[in-house]
Please model this.
Amino acid sequence: MAESNARVEARRPDPNEKLVKVFDSEDESEALVVKGLLDSAGIESDLTSGSFLQDAFPGLGGMLILVREDDGEKARKLIAESRRPLGDAQDDDETKS
Model:
């Protein structure tokens, strides 16, 4: 069990690194799905409760996903692409006709 926890901890960004918010949601299950998406793309992320940050950021609640600053742009792009409706993604063959 300790080995399993060590692997999970190894995939999380170091809190001493510069982290940026790439996603927030009031819905924990939605945040978990997005975290899984990032994990599957090899982007290390940290899922945290926004309620802990109320003093610094009033009105902020729900769940936040933080990534290393270097991974921020890639993570945001991946999240945006995953949220795009399937009908918006046109196949190259359709655009060539």
Remarks:
- Residues 28-40 form the longest helix (13 residues).
- Confidence is low (pLDDT under 50) at residues 1-10.
- The first strand starts at residue 19 and ends at 25.
- The two ends are 56 Å apart (CA to CA).
